[in-house]
Amino acid sequence: MRQKLMTIGLTALLLIPGAVLANDPLAEWQPRFDPRAAEHTYLLSCVGHPAIEGVRVGFRIRDRVWEETNGRLFVDYRPMSQLGGEMDVIGKLRMGAVHGMMSSSVAAPNISPRLGLVNLPFLVGSFDQLQQFRQDAELFEEYGAEALKSGIRVADFTAYGGYGWATRTPVTSLEEAKSVIFRIAQAPVNIDMYRAWGLQFTVMPWPDVPQALQTGVITGLDHTPTVVSTGNFFNTAKHYTQIDYAQGLYIHLINERWLQRLPADLRDTLLRIIAEESGKARLAGQEQDQREMAKARAAGVSFSRLPEQDLAAMKQQVEPVINQWQDRIGADFLQRVQERLNN
């Protein structure tokens, strides 16, 4: 009898909108409304953690869309790899089993090589350059044009800081970096780049990184201060080298076939809110990057930058990589981006 009552109680708890178990990492992000009455559902995936502003935006989009459509459209947002890894979700997105995803910029080139533009080293390296690129309507439309031909719309993107190196030992020069074993993303551009720099690296799935860094399988992590700090990697890697060779993005992708089946008023509202909230999230992401670096410094993490001659050498070494990728991205398009961003 007691067991039966406990079962009934737990079932009732789960049926209450917003009710979750205490150990649920997404507890505070549950909707404060009952989405079951929605006429349409937009299933949206992301591998990131909502501790990152560029990931948290999905919940803000969800709540605004619900309010401004009077409950007709529910954005069913699933961060933290709830719908699978990025390569799995990309396949589901193409088929329409998932309607949208906020893809990391390193995975997005699997949709369209042109989306690898933002991963090219020292092209869109600063936040100001990123904003300039996004606010150029012509460049942004061309950026997503190839993906749209394949049935995927590039709606917008958020940002989570500039890429550098979190390491177990200080790295203040390119020579010191050669003794580090870096974990890099599963992206062809990054592989080509690290080969050009002559650095040791390993391509590793993200869930394997914490243990690998703790045990010394890797001794460095190629990522942004926000991701390193919110993931608690500074507990092991207590040194950070700021390079800012690229900006980390979550690119909002939508299955175009699903989008066009949505009533026009809901479609317009969804796209408008995605653009507005993504713009806010980019600014919030820049602020978060500064906060996380300040917090890390206060905890004893050392921050450094490479000498100018080393950065110049790195830029020269990756010129062949940029030339190699320009045909995939579009040589004319890449040249116009370089000119408008003063590269």
Polypeptide structure, described:
It is a single chain. The protein is an alpha/beta fold. It has one domain (31-340): Bacterial extracellular solute-binding protein, family 7 (D-Maltodextrin-Binding Protein, domain 2, 3-Layer(aba) Sandwich). Helix content is 47%, strand content 20%. The chain contains 15 helices and 9 strands. The protein has helices at 2-15, 53-68, 86-95, 127-135, 137-143, 145-149, 174-177, 188-197, 209-215, 225-230, 256-261, 264-298, 308-317, 319-329, 331-340; strands at residues 40-46, 73-78, 100-104, 152-167, 181-184, 200-203, 220-223, 239-255, 302-305. Strands 1, 2, 3, 4, 5, 6, 7, 8 and 9 form a 9-stranded mixed beta sheet that branches. α8 (188-197) links the parallel β5 (181-184) and β6. The longest helix is centred in the C-terminal third of the chain and has 35 residues, at 264-298. The N and C termini lie far apart (73 Å). The model is unreliable at 1-22 (pLDDT under 50).
The dominant shape is globular
Rg from Cα: 21 Å
CATH architecture type: 3-Layer(aba) Sandwich
Strand/helix succession:
HEHEHEHHHEHEHEHEHEHHEHHH
Report the strand count.
Answer: 9
User: Which parts are unreliable, with pLDDT below 50 for 5 consecutive residues or more?
Assistant: 1-22
Q: Name the CATH class.
A: Alpha Beta
Q: Report the span from N to C terminus.
A: 73 Å
Q: Counting H and I runs of at least 4 residues, what is the number of helices?
A: 15
Strand content: 15-25%
**What do we call the CATH topology?**
D-Maltodextrin-Binding Protein, domain 2
Overall structural class, as computed from helix and strand content, comes to alpha/beta
Mean pLDDT: 91
The CATH homology group name = Bacterial extracellular solute-binding protein, family 7
Largest sheet: 9 strands, mixed
